[in-house]
Structure formats: C-alpha cells, structure tokens
Design a protein that fits this description.
425 residues; alpha+beta; 5-stranded antiparallel sheet; 15 helices; globular
Length: 425
C-alpha cells in the first residue's frame, strides 16, 4: 500500500471510529436548550428560552457570565453556534446570571431531548455521506475526488449533530473543538472541490475567490472554534465578534462558492458542460438549506432550521454519484459493486461499536475500560480491513456480478495458460 493508501485508510478508520463513539455517546448526551448569543468576550445572552428552561428561573435577556462558571458548565454551553452536544444527561450546571443589576445563580439540569426517530434520521445522513466519502477516497485519483472525500468524512462526523456526552470533560471539550473546526472549515473544503472540477475560470478569478473565502471563513473560525474553546478553558474569548458579523461573513462564503461555480458553468460548453450539469444543479440545490439557515440567524429571533440544512446537504454528493453513473466515467457495475462493499463494511463497523457499547454497559464496565476496549476493536478492524474487504468483494462478485466475475476468472486463467502455449493456433 502506497502513502496515499495509508493516509486514506487512516482517515477512513478515524471517521468510522469517531462516528462509533458518537453513536455510543448519544444516550448520555445533552445540550443547553436555550438559544444564546455572544454579547462579549466573557458573556452570552439568552435570546429564546423554552418553557422547560423558564421553569428553572432562566429569563429572556439574561446575561450569562462565563468567567464565574466551572469548566464542565462552560463546556456544555459555549459551542452554541455549532451542531454538537457536549453536556452529559443529568449533570447539574450552575449558571452565573446577570439580571438587571444583580447576580443570580441558577442550577440547570442538562436533559436529553432527542428522540429515537431523530437519531435514526441523523445516523442515516451520516451513513450516506460516509459511504460516498469512503468510495471517492478509495477509488478516486483526481484532486477533486480526494478533496470531496475528505469533505464528506468531515461532514459525516460533524453533521447533522455530534454527541460527546459519554466522554469525560476533556473528551467532551475535544469533541466540541473537533465539531466546531469541521463546521468552520467545511465551506473552504467545498470551495476547493468546486475549484477542482471547474473549467473556464481565469487564474486571477481563482485567486480572488480564494481570498474572499479566507476572509469570509476567518470570523467564523475565530468565534466558533478559537473563542469558544478559550471560553471553555478560561471563561473569556480572545476577541469579541458580533454574531451578526460572523453569520453574515459565513453566508457570504456560500455565495462566493455559488458565484464561482456559476461563472465556471456558464463558460463551459459542449461535452464538458454535460458532464458537470448534474453536479452543478445538485450543488445549487444543496446550498438552499444552508443559506436559509444562515440568513435566518441574521434575524432578531431566529428559528432552528438545521433539519432543512442537513437534508439539502445530502443532494450534492448524491448528484456527484449520479453524474458518475450517467456519463459512464467509470463502469456502472464497478460503482455498484464498490458501493455495496463499503456500505456493508461501514454498517458492520458501526454495528460492532453499537453492540459492543451495549454489552459493556450491560456488564457495568467503567467508562475508561469501555473506551480502551473500543479503541482495541477499532485498531483490530483497521488491521484486518484489507482482508475483510477482499473477501466481501469476492462474495459480492460471485453473488451479484457472476457473469463479470466468471469472465474475469476465465481471462486470468487464459493469461496464465498463454505462457505455456507452444502453438497459438
């Protein structure tokens, strides 16, 4: 296996392991359910308070002083702009609230609010994106395929939600940092995918688009990853950025990608245009939910729209898959064969982690011991991946693609016999 193969195997194993940890952590994960807005380096303000949270004494307009709270309490609430759950079910955190001119201490119990149908839908999303990412990483050789595969793996780990509640505080904090980073870098990676498949765009336009993307992404990186992590550790961020500025810049990043792809598509003609048509329109539609979510955050009283966002995100990788099948870029049977292989392998790996977590919980193994066992299993899966992959491929070839499999075997036998033929006639 070459260096690229080793890197791809490591990335695949890491993504599968992280998703397995997330699924195992789901029952114990919780988030701070009040919608908050950053109003200073060391403070959040409650903007939308649910009836259940209002019953605890929290009020709309309350200012939460992070510097007066503990690290576990801050970890549960600082990643409020990213889709992650870094709190533990049943944990009581003390909110240091400034209301009017007085300080109020409010005990807040973190609750698990997700339903099983929600989990199934979210895991289904992760599964689809993960399969597409693994497929293009293992079979693609072009720069666009590599970037698309990495983007898919990151999206599968971070969206539509990430659950880290079963981990110790340091693990939950690390999970929050990872999710925030994946959420922030995603538009930049998506732009690189579009740039790699775009044609008809000048070098100057590419440099302008790259500069615009960096400018648009940096505020979100600072607020969601750097500031949030600093707030979790110390109670205060490095620099104060208004949420309006960050959301506006993040929305601008999406518009830059759409504009760049639109210009490229408009300047592409003939067969090249036909080959990227489905990719282009799938991309445009996939941005609808994202932009709706981001524009909605710019409103005074935002509505939670992450469901629309992650449903439309799925359209882009599926559009890429359709383009591969429609234009015969590679053999259709080959695509179906490899898709089935990686679907089976991914399902088995995730299933093993879920079953293992259930068994370990049943026998009351400590959390540290459970994580050690899961890590050992993950390493075992990684070491045996090639052998399992080969046997799965042979089984599918014999079962579903028998004619092609028999032809390949006959051709291989002929090539071996040809070396000993004295008279070809």
């Amino acid at each position: 296996m070459n260096a690229r193969g080793i890197a791809v195997a490591a990335a695949t194993l890491a993504a599968v392991l992280l998703i397995g940890v997330e699924i195992a952590s789901w029952p114990e994960s919780a988030r701070f359910n009040t919608v908050t807005e950053t109003v200073g380096r060391c403070a959040l303000q409650a903007t939308v308070v649910s009836p259940a949270d209002a019953a605890t004494g929290l009020r709309q307009g309350d200012r939460i002083d992070l510097s007066q709270m503990t690290v576990p309490a801050r970890t549960a609430i600082v990643y409020h702009y990213t889709p992650t759950q870094t709190g533990r079910v049943g944990e009581v955190i003390n909110l240091a609230v400034q209301r009017g001119g007085s300080a109020v201490a409010i005990p807040y119990t973190l609750r698990h609010t997700d339903t099983m149908p929600t989990l199934i839908a979210q895991v289904g999303f992760k599964f689809v994106i993960l399969v597409v990412g693994v497929f293009v990483l293992w079979r693609g050789r072009a720069r666009a395929a590599t970037i698309l595969g990495i983007w898919c793996l990151g999206v599968a780990v971070g969206l539509p939600d990430a659950w880290w509640g079963a981990l110790p505080v340091d693990g939950r904090l690390s999970g929050g940092i990872l999710t925030a980073a994946l959420w922030t870098y995603s538009p930049l990676m998506l732009y690189l995918v579009v740039e790699a498949i775009a044609t008809g765009v000048s070098r100057r336009a590419i440099l302008i688009a790259r500069t615009a993307m960096l400018i648009a992404v940096v505020p979100s990186l600072v607020l969601n990853t750097v500031n949030a992590t600093q707030q979790a550790y110390t109670g205060c961020g490095l620099v104060y950025l208004t949420s309006w500025l960050v959301n506006g810049a993040f929305s601008a990043a999406q518009l830059v990608i759409i504009a760049f792809f639109a210009v490229s598509y408009a300047r592409t003609t003939g067969l090249a245009r036909q080959r990227i048509r489905w990719v282009f329109w799938a991309f445009v539609i996939s941005r609808f939910g994202v932009l709706l979510n981001l524009f909605n955050r710019l409103l005074v009283h935002p509505i939670h729209l992450s469901g629309a966002e992650w449903l439309t995100v799925m359209i882009f990788p599926l559009g890429c898959a359709y383009a591969i099948l429609r234009h015969r870029i590679i053999d259709v049977n080959f695509v179906l064969n490899r898709t089935l292989i990686y679907t089976i392998l991914t399902s088995v790996a995730v299933g093993i982690f879920v079953l293992l977590e259930h068994i370990l919980n049943s026998v009351a193994v400590s959390r540290e011991g459970s994580l050690a066992v899961e890590l050992a299993v993950a390493l075992g899966l990684g070491i045996s991946f090639n052998a399992v992959h080969k046997r799965t491929e042979q089984f599918l070839d014999r079962t579903l693609f028998r004619r092609k499999y028999e032809a390949a075997i006959a051709l291989e036998q002929l090539s071996e016999d040809a070396a000993y033929m004295e008279n070809p006639e």
